[in-house]
């Protein structure tokens, strides 16, 4: 779904208080939050239009809570479907049942909504608040001094900003220009992602993480009767077709009442990394979202963590621009430990899902035994929902 942005001409040289590089969910959230505060900010993005795909598919409770400040939470809820349960399974056997119903929040569920719809809602709010997005503009260089930073683009134009925010993804040009190390590693497997129309008896209020001898698979409901499917494979096809997605479900999904793939709406492959930037700020340059941290999609934390970064950063930028520059030191101190915890959680879930075949029976027994304790299930619900990071 494309976004109807106010495309701005690229002037040769302009000034702004905040330049945000990257107009994905993190950048859009930050842009809207700054616009709501009356702060002069410009977003730039290399794409001519907003993303037409939907890699992220869940908005968690804590994210919906903080987005109330932008008056978009109810709109988002109207575009998604609430999933009140998350289960870890070995085919038809439930290993870990988790419910969000008892969480102390207005949003006791995982909201299943495509990233494209989330971006559309954030984009429309930004435009309503008078925000500016310049598309397409590619950052070529970024230099800073004690008073600000100068960004140079592929069209030769320059923007002078008091602060520059890198919300430009895992391969962040902003992070590279700032010389900030991005420590971590990569998973050996590749991942398949597909949105598909399925027939069968899959519930619309439950996200399922399947552990099977063949590997991990996630099946999650989406609006309109579609389902999101994510699976680890050794060598994923560039574009998974119906037969390939069906083979994944046959080998990993429900067995007694198997799901049938009627249509693949969209599919892709990607490799995953688990990395956290050494610092989230270097002088006038600050990182947020995937530019600051990236990890496995297990648990659906990526986009949510970036949105929470943005809302925290908006408050601190407001203080810094009012003369309290030291307030920005709080950003890394607050958000980097959260990022490290999120990366650890996603990494644990991914490694549990991809243990060698000889260890899978032991893993299943341990998980099933641990899940008998309500405290363990409640703790995982708090972590997945983001409420643990209030």
Structural notes for this entry:
The chain has 2 domains: 184 residues, FAD/NAD(P)-binding domain; 151 residues, D-Amino Acid Oxidase, Chain A, domain 2 (2-Layer Sandwich). The two termini are 32 Å apart. The longest helix has 25 residues. By secondary structure, the protein is an alpha+beta fold. The mean pLDDT is 90.
- Mean pLDDT over all positions: 90
Number of beta strands = 19
User: Order of SSEs, N→C?
Assistant: EHEEHHEEEEHEEEEHEEEEHEEEEHHHH
What sort of overall outline do the alpha carbons produce when their principal axes are compared? globular
CATH class division of the largest domain: Alpha Beta
Count of all domains? 2
Please name the defining characteristics of this protein.
alpha+beta, FAD/NAD(P)-binding domain, D-Amino Acid Oxidase, Chain A, domain 2, eight-stranded mixed beta sheet, globular
Secondary-structure blueprint of this entry?
Blueprint (H helix, E strand, L loop, with lengths): L12 E9 L3 H12 L4 E4 L13 E2 L1 H7 L5 H7 L1 E3 L1 E6 L2 E7 L10 E3 L2 H14 L4 E2 L4 E6 L4 E5 L4 E9 L6 H6 L3 E18 L6 E7 L2 E7 L4 E8 L8 H11 L7 E18 L3 E2 L2 E3 L5 E2 L7 H20 L7 H25 L6 H11 L3 H12 L5
